[in-house]
Structure formats: C-alpha cells, structure tokens
Design goal:
The complex is a heterotrimer of chains A (252), B (244) and C (575). Chain A has 252 residues and is mainly α. Chain A has 6 helices and 2 strands. Chain A has a two-stranded antiparallel ribbon with strand order 1-2. Chain A is elongated. Chain C has one domain: Up-down Bundle (Cytochrome C Oxidase, Chain A), CATH 1.20.210.10. Chain C is 59% helix and 3% strand. Classes of the chains: A mainly alpha (252), B alpha+beta (244), C mainly alpha (575).
Chain lengths: 252, 244, 575
C-alpha cells in the first residue's frame, strides 16, 4: 500500500459534456464528488475566489429557511384563527374574527422597502465590478467601497424610514383604540408587523456591520461577503414583507 | 348492590363496562400480541448474533431474507392494524351520538368534576362565567333567569342508566383537563372555551373511577370522581331526588 | 482558508480544552460537558421524583416532604432538561461537532465563530432554566409540553409566574442556539466536503447529522413562534391560546378575543415530533456504521439506509397529530395522522431489518475475544429501539390511544426509546470515538459492567411501566395515595420501578469513572483501533486529506492483506 499519495492533474477531454456542462462522472479525475461546483476536485481552500462567498451565502440561506418557518408558523396560526370558531356552551358557533383595516401608510412603507431593495442591490453590485475588484487585488485603494457606501447609506436611511412608517401605522391604530390585545385580528397585525420590523432592524444592524467591515476588514472577500450577505438578507426581508403585507391586506 | 366492577385492581385494564369495550379490548390484545411477537423475534436474533462463536472468515453477505420480503409482510401487518383501528375510530367519533341519547354535561375545573343533567325539559340552561360561584352553590354559573336552567341538576358524581347511550358535553372552566374513564375505555380532553362531545354506552352495572389525564395543576392527582352505572329504576330514583 | 497547514489527524488527539476556543473539537467537548451536567441534574431530579412516587411520606433532608407542586416541578424540569439539553445537544452538537468535520474530510466546521456562539447561547439557556428553581414560586409545573391556558395564566399554580417565564426564556435561547448550530452543520456538509466525497459516499452518521440539522432548523423556528405567542398571552393580554373567559381560583379573567389552546398543541407538536427524531437519528446512523464496523460486513444497501434516514426525517414532520388524538382535534385529521404514523414505522423497520440481517450471520467476536463495549452498546441500542419503537404502532391507533394517551404506557414507550436507546447511542459513541478524541481506549471491563448493569436495570425499571399504563394510571400524578386512591394498588409496582431506577442511576457512575479515568490512564490506541473505513481514522502518515474514492461500507473486501478499505485509500490503479 503506497505510503504517499501522488496527485497528478488529469486533463479531461470535453467532447461529451456531462450534465450541467461538467464532464460525466466516469470521466472526472477521481470519479466525481466534492463540492457541487468543484468538479475539478480541488481541496477546500483551493476552490476559487467564490468559495468563501458561496459558503456564507449558503449559511445565510439555511438561516433564512429557518426564519421562514418562524413566519410560516405565525401565518398558519393567522389563517387558522380566521376560520376557526368554536361551539360555545349554548351550541352556537362563534367566530370572533373582525378584519382590521390596515392604515394606508403601509402602502407607502411597502414602496419604501421595495425601493430600499433596489438601492441595496445597487450597493451589492458595486462590490463585484470586475475592474474595481482587480484594482483592489492589486492594492490600488478600495474603489468598491467608495462606490458601495453611498448606496448602503441610502438603503439604511430608507430602512429607517420604513421602520418609522411602521411605527406611525401603529400609532394611528392606537389613536383609533386598537391595541395589541384588542381583538384577534389586531393580535396578528401587531405580531406580524412587529416581528418583521424586528427582523428589519437586525438587517439595519447587519448593514452597520457591513460599514464596519468595509472600513476595517483587510480582505476583499470579507468585505464582499459582508455587503453581499446583508443584501440578500435585506432582499429576503423585503420579499417576506410583500407576502405578509399582501396577506394582511387581502386575506383577512 | 353496586358492584365494584370497574375499579382497576390489577396491572391490566379494568373490567370493561362499555358497549364498544369488547371490540376495543380485543384490538388492544391483538396489537400487543403482534408487537410482542415481533419484539421477541428481534431480540432472539440480537442475542443469537451476540452469542455466535468467533469465526475466521467473515467476508459474507448479510442475510438476504431480512429484506424486501419481511418489509412487505410488516407493511401488510401494520396496514391491517391501521384499517381495523380506523374502522373502530370512525364508528366512535365520525358520527355524533344518536339523537335519542341521554345528555349529560361534564365540566372540569381545578380540581373537581361537575356533572349536569338537563332535567325533564332535556335542555341545558344558559351558563355565564361571571355567575360562577361555587361557594354560593352555583359552580357552573347557571343563569337563574333562564327558565331552562330551573330543572338542571348539578352533581359531583356521574350516575348513568345501563344500556342507554349517553352523549357527554365536555367543558372546562380553566385549563385543559383530561376526562378519562378507564372502565368505559373513554378519554377526551376538556378544552376551555370549547364544548366537545363524546358518546358511549355503558352496559355493565358497577362503579367506575373517573380520573383526570391531563396535568392541570397541584390537585391533578386528586381530580377524580365516580361513575355509577345503575339500572333504569335506580337511575330515575336518583335523578328525581330519592337517591339511594 | 486562513492557514495552509495540512490536516493532521493527530491534532484531534491533542490534550487540553478551552470553552472559549472556536476549534470544533473544543466546542464539541464544551457541548458534551454541558450535556453531562444536564444529565446529572436531570437524573437527580428523576431520582427524587421516583422516591416520592413510591414512598410519598418520605421527608428529604433540608427540604421536608415533597409537595405536589414540587413533584410537578421535578417532572417538568426533568423532561425539559433531558429532552433539550441532553438528547438534542449531545448526539447532534456534541458528537457531531467532534467527528463530522473529520468524517467529511474538512479541517473545520463552516463557521467556527457561530459554532462557539451557539454553544454559549445553549449554555445561557441552561443557566436560565436552572435559575427557575431558585425564584419565587419555583420551577414551572405544566410539564415539558406546557399546554396553555395552564402555562399562560400565572394564577393556575405555583411556579407558573416567574418560573414559567424563565422556562420560556430558556427554551427560546435554546431555539436560537440550536438553529445556529444547525446552520453551521448544514453548510459544512454541503460545502466543506473534501474532493471525491460525494453525498452518496458520506458516512451514515453524517447523513443522520445532516437530516437532524435540517429538521432542527425547520422545527425549532416553529417552537420559537409558539413561545413568542405564549409570551404575548402571558404579558400583553393577547388571546392566541387563551379563551375569552377563564375562571381561575374563583376569579374571572376576561380577554378580548377567544383563543384556542388547540393552536398551541398544533404548533408545539409540529416541533415536538421532529424533535424526537432529531434525538434518535444520530444514534441510528452510528448504529449502522458500528454494525458494519464490528461485523466486518456491509449493510444490505447503503443507498437504502440513506433513503430511510431521509424518509424518517421527512415523515417526522407529518405525524405530529398522533399526540393529539384525544385533544379535540378534528376526527378526520386523526385518520390522516394515524396513516402517516403507521407509515413512519416502515423506514424504521427497514433500518432495523438491515441491522438484524447484517448481525444475523454472527461473527462479532474476533479472535476469541469479547465483543467490544462500543458494539455492546450498539446491540443495546437496537434492543431498546425495538422495545420502545414497537409500542409505537400500538399508540398510533387512535382508538387504542384513547385509552393509552397520557398514561404510563406512553412514559414507558418514550423512556425506552429516548431515555435508553438514544442514551445507549451516546455511550456507544463515547466508547467508539474516545480514541479519536484522545488517542486512548476506554476500559473494556468497566464498559462491560456498565453495559450489563444499565441494560438490566433499565429494562427492569421501564418495562413494568407498560403495566401501570394498562391499568390506566395517568401521567403527572404526584401521588397514588390520597382520598380516592384509585391507583394505590400500583404502589408495589412503582416501588419496584423506583428501586431499579436508583440502581440505573447509580450504575452511571461506572461510565463517568471510565471516562475520566481513561482520559489519562487509558491504554494507547493505534491510529485506527477499530479497523474502520471512515475518514476520521485517517492514518497520520498521510500528509493531507486525500481525495475519496469509495463508500465507507467497504468491509469484507480483500484489500492489501486486510478485510476493509478505508475511504482515504487511492483508487485501484486501473487507468
């Protein structure tokens, strides 16, 4: 049994492209395996400039999947509560759901959060412009940061405007006398908007973290990851808001 | 005169006093025997494999007959048990009680069971939570202004006539309680804020303990009552006040 | 990544540990130590419980007679601590963090900092939970399932005020910690496998951790949502779970809106059922690998075992209603849940059949020696899994469950399968991976004594509980004597159970002694003491992680004068 392992790079002919543009399993150097994008079978740490980014994006994806289940639980409770009455002691079916008319400012808030997603995406893309990345690699300053920071600032401001708008919506409801515990529909309204707002606040903190990384992190990859993951988180919260808002407006 | 037919006096199910109980008991024993046999076979194989002597050559394939065939047999067995179980369940729960069934309301409260009979008008009177006052003799909050409440009788023991289906309205005033009569093979949680119905037919005269099967607080262990199944005449006597 | 140092398996055997280090091995040991403390506390609580149930008038020193609220607090905290801090933590986060990176050929987990953070969050959760004993009113008494309105209204019992809030906070923290750990584990499996390690070539333990982590991620979030809603009911006057009018202690408590406790049951059990599969799946994965390892044979179908692992994880999300057959749920729903519950018996049976089939040809004793302790515990795992699991099809039938629900029959069922099978998986894991972590072997003789004492006392303690359940004895009864004494005739049975439970608890001292003694005095193991194929036993002579070319089930093959082929070995020189 050989005590050493020799690794010879194998040239794979691409006459018959396999599934997904990769060579078929039997024509790969070591019979396939490894990371999904790693068909050349490099060890971890050597799989290319996107390896770390891919890992963090995947971690974020899983975390958001769990977060989605949190909202799914609340939403399913929301739907069940709307349609579930019960039989009271006098054999009468009681359903006490009174739909809440949402404050119109929520429409404005929705527009704001959509706009903030656009600006966030702009910020994210500034981090990956080829020429700027090349310059950073060569040590010629941080042009990506220069481009991304204004967009991030705008997004933070828009996010804060959204949160302010949600607060105003709550205040408007309270002046009408509808508080958290007022009726089942208000329970869910406050809980859903509150939970989402809290998540958005976390998103703003993530952006603050991205600012800090842009100034303090030494590696370009880390800076890219900070902005990229904040951006995807932000987009997801925007997407969640679309669904939650749609439900509150049309499905009560 | 009353037989202690239903008291659990052994390490097995107490004597059955309900009409559906015989089929239930049969099903229980059948299921236990089937899983018991499977358990013994599995354990035997485990022990045999542990005790088998050492071998030189070990490069053999695993035993093949523990494969698809056995799995199919198990699937069939489990499916058969399931179908039988569902038939029984459907009979009990998918349809409500017979319209001529006797009505009794069972109300659970920390830590006591109350039973209410609707009286000759066969209608339960209204209850209001704000009128609940056990100390004043109105533990269920009967609304005295309601004429239908006048003949309702609230007791702390459940007395039923034999061979008559009873439709139990189950309520709770505070937390989830579990209404469980082992001798009648009947269990249903009482949900506060809802009224649930179960029905059964006692067919053996005797006394059957009623216990609470869902933890409800300090007194959960002593939230017990007694079901007395009596003959028709005795039941009439008891209901109209000339109790035995 | 940061440092290009070659992976050196011997690094796994260095000594020393710091709870502040991000290294996966240190985090793993932190988790395992936390679980050890939790299991000790949980066992102590159960010993006191059993003492009281069997001998209700005994006075504890410093405490006096155990009152009903004390007993219920003991039950609640015992369940909470064991299920969350032992069975969800040790198999998955403890052993997973220790072994998974090596088994997939990674140098480290995907996010070491998050790993460390998840441990400290779990530690914080534990501290908060313990503190519930020491506050005014004491620990909560509503059981680990904390059904509202009992858990939503503070005046329903002692401990339901601050104690219940602390319980909520603790479990909420635990949800966060577990989710972080799950994200870490999932990303590691997907992204940090070495070259050649396809998903199909991952060891079954890794598959089990993977499916468990996926289940953790999805289930704990739902629990978190339910906890948030319960908190709102307790403190904000909402009525998610609480009906409009409640009469507690003679006081009318009115709320606006009529909630349903059934909503809590659905949400909780949607989490609660996958939770128990999270607890048992790693043990099942380990049993599969050890059966192969010690019989030196392949399992009938490696892909089939992967499929059953995935199926169990998936189906585990569809069966929650079987905890609710008598809850007032729609009766048609109980048909659906009975069907899925019976269905989940099938992948579990397939797994057991695979194990039994592989074991049935015998040959566990090598060279006339004894069966190693790790394998003994695996046999015990299979035994308890079968014993506990086979009462599942009985409980899955809604009509039968209408008698057995919340009786001691259920207590027997889950203690045999969670209390004993999952714990035997932990014992097997400790014995098996001790040389991986430490370079030393645990003492075989102590291991055998521990095994036999535990096996026998556990069966003698838990099996008779089936009879108590058949007699109709409900759970959570703080005493069987008293004015009505309906189940007082079961006291001799409970005395038997308690006596053997004390023996069972005491026998675990053998395990602790073995572990701590072998840390320094265990006989040195080679680099692959079990002649195993998985990557964690990589020979240290190999400089770096090579590419993987085969499945870990290459046992019983003729290769280079041995009967197995390690996953690190190069492909046959054919091309």
């Amino acid at each position: 049994m050989p005590l050493t392992v020799t690794r010879t790079p194998v040239e794979v002919e691409r006459k018959e492209p396999g599934f997904g543009g990769r060579p078929p399993m039997d024509r790969r150097p070591t019979g396939g395996g490894g990371d999904g994008e790693n068909w050349e079978n490099r060890p971890p740490g050597r799989r290319g400039p996107r390896e770390l980014l891919g890992r963090y994006r995947l971690g974020l994806f899983f975390a958001l999947a769990g977060d989605m289940m949190f909202f799914v639980a609340i939403i399913s409770a929301f739907f069940v509560r709307q349609t579930t009455g019960h039989i009271d002691a006098r054999n009468q079916y009681i359903l006490d759901w009174h739909p809440l008319s949402i404050p119109p400012i929520l429409w404005l808030n929705t527009a704001v959060i959509l706009l903030s997603s656009v600006t966030m995406e702009m910020a994210r893309r500034q981090m990956f412009r080829e020429n700027d990345v090349l310059e950073e690699w060569l040590g010629l300053g941080r042009p990506t940061m220069r481009r991304a920071v204004p967009w991030l600032v705008i997004t933070s401001v828009l996010g804060s405007v959204f949160l302010g708008g949600q607060w105003i919506a709550w205040k408007q409801l309270q002046t009408e006398g509808i508080f958290f515990a007022s009726n089942p529909a208000s329970h869910f309204f406050y809980l859903i908007t509150g939970a989402h707002g809290l998540h958005l606040l976390i998103g703003i903190f993530a952006m603050v973290g991205a600012f800090w990384a842009l100034y303090a992190a030494k590696r370009l990859e880390i800076r890219q990851i900070a902005v990229d993951c904040s951006a995807w988180y932000w987009h997801t919260m925007g997407l969640f808001w679309i669904f939650l808002f749609g439900m509150l407006v049309y499905f009560q | 005169m009353t037989l202690l037919a239903g008291a659990p006096s052994s390490w097995w199910m107490p004597a059955n006093g309900a009409a559906h109980g015989a089929a239930f008991d049969h099903e229980m024993v059948l299921s236990l025997v089937i899983v018991g046999v499977l358990m013994i076979i599995a354990k035997a194989i485990l022990v045999a494999s542990a005790l088998s002597p050492a071998r030189e050559r070990a490069a053999e394939r695993p035993v093949n007959f523990f494969g698809l065939g056995t799995l199919i047999v198990l699937t069939v067995v489990f499916a058969w048990l399931l179908i039988r179980a569902e038939r029984m369940r459907a009979q009990q729960r998918f349809t409500g009680a017979d319209p001529t069934a006797m009505q009794v309301e069972v109300v659970g409260e920390q830590f006591v069971w109350y039973f209410r009979y609707p009286g000759p008008d066969a209608t339960f009177g209204t209850t209001r939570p704000e009128l609940v006052d056990a100390a004043a003799g109105n533990p269920l909050g009967l609304d005295r202004r309601d004429s239908r409440a006048a003949d309702d009788r609230v007791t702390s023991e459940l007395v039923l006539p034999v061979d008559r289906e009873v439709d139990v309205r189950l309520r709770s005033l505070d937390v989830i309680h579990g209404f469980f009569i082992p001798g009648m093979r009947v269990k249903q949680n009482a949900l506060p804020g809802s009224t649930l119905h179960i029905h059964f037919t006692p067919d053996l005269i005797g006394e059957y303990p009623i216990v609470c099967s869902q933890v409800c607080g300090l007194g959960h262990y002593r939230m017990q009552a007694q079901l007395r199944v009596v003959n028709e005449a005795d039941f009439e006597h008891w209901l109209t006040g000339r109790a035995k | 990544m940061k440092d290009e140092a070659a992976f050196a398996p011997a690094a796994a055997r260095r000594s020393g540990w710091s709870p502040f280090s991000r290294d996966h091995r240190d985090v793993a040991i932190s988790y395992l130590l936390l679980s050890l403390v939790a299991v000790a506390v949980g066992t102590l609580l159960s010993v006191v419980m059993r003492l009281h149930l069997a001998w209700p008038d005994v006075k504890l020193p410093f405490w006096g007679v155990i009152k009903p609220e004390d007993y219920l607090a003991l039950v609640t905290m015992h369940g909470t601590m064991m299920i969350f801090f032992v069975l969800t933590t040790a198999p998955q986060n403890g052993f997973g963090n220790l072994v998974l990176p090596a088994q997939v050929g990674a140098r480290e987990m995907a996010f070491p900092a998050i790993n460390l953070a998840s441990f400290w969050t779990t530690f914080a959760a534990f501290t908060v939970l313990i503190s519930a004993f020491f506050v005014r009113g004491g620990a909560p008494i509503s059981g680990w399932t904390s059904y509202p309105p009992f858990s939503a209204i503070a005046s329903t019992g002692p401990g339901q005020g601050l104690g219940m809030d602390l319980w909520l906070a603790s479990i909420a923290l635990f949800c966060i910690g577990s989710s972080m750990a799950a994200v870490n584990m999932l990303t590691t499996v997907v992204r940090r496998r070495c070259a050649g390690m396809t998903m199909g070539r991952m060891p079954l333990t890794v598959w089990a951790w993977f499916v468990s982590a996926l289940s953790t991620l999805l289930a704990f979030s739902v629990l978190f949502a339910a906890l948030v809603m319960l908190f709102c009911d307790r403190h904000c006057g909402t009525s998610f779970f609480v009906p409009a009018s409640e009469i507690v202690n003679g006081q009318l408590l009115a709320r606006r809106g009529d909630g349903s406790p059934l909503l809590w049951l659905h949400l909780f059990w949607f989490f609660g059922h996958p939770e128990v599969y999270i607890a048992i799946l790693p043990g099942m994965g380990l049993a599969s690998m050890l059966v192969m390892n010690f019989t030196r044979r392949r399992l009938p179908s490696y892909r089939g075992m992967i499929a059953t692992t995935i199926l169990i994880g998936l189906l585990g999300f569809m069966v929650w209603g079987h905890h609710m057959f008598v809850s007032g749920m729609n009766p048609y729903a109980s048909t659906a849940f009975a069907l899925t519950t019976m269905a989940i018996a099938l992948p579990s049976s397939a797994t057991v059949l695979a194990w039994l089939g592989t074991l049935a040809r015998g040959g566990l004793r090598r060279n006339g020696g004894d069966i190693p302790a790790a394998m003994l515990f695996t046999l015990g795992f299979i035994s308890f899994f079968v014993s506990g699991g086979l009462t599942g099809p009985v409980l899955a039938q809604p009509n039968l469950d209408a008698y057995l629900h919340n009786t001691f029959f259920v207590v027997a069922h889950f203690h045999l399968i969670m209390g004993m099978a999952a714990v035997f998986g932990l014992f097997a894991a400790t014995h098996y991976w001790f040389p991986f972590f430490n370079g030393r072997l645990m003492n075989e003789r102590l291991g055998r004594w521990h095994f036999w004492l535990t096996l026998v006392s556990a069966y003698l303690a838990f099996f008779p509980m089936h009879f108590a359940g058949m007699a109709g004895e409900p759970r959570h009864f703080s005493q069987l004597t008293g004015s009505l004494g309906t189940f007082a005739h079961l006291i001799p049975l409970h005395r038997w159970i308690s006596a053997w439970a004390f023996v069972l608890a005491a026998a675990q001292m053998l395990f602790l002694t073995n572990v701590f003694h072998s840390l320094k005095q265990g006989s040195p193991a080679g680099s692959n003491p079990w002649a195993a194929t998985t990557l964690e036993w990589l020979p240290p002579a190999l400089g770096e992680i090579p590419a993987v070319h085969c499945s870990p089930d290459e046992y019983g093959v003729r290769h280079a004068g041995r009967d197995f082929k390690g996953q690190w070995e190069p492909p046959p020189e054919q091309e």
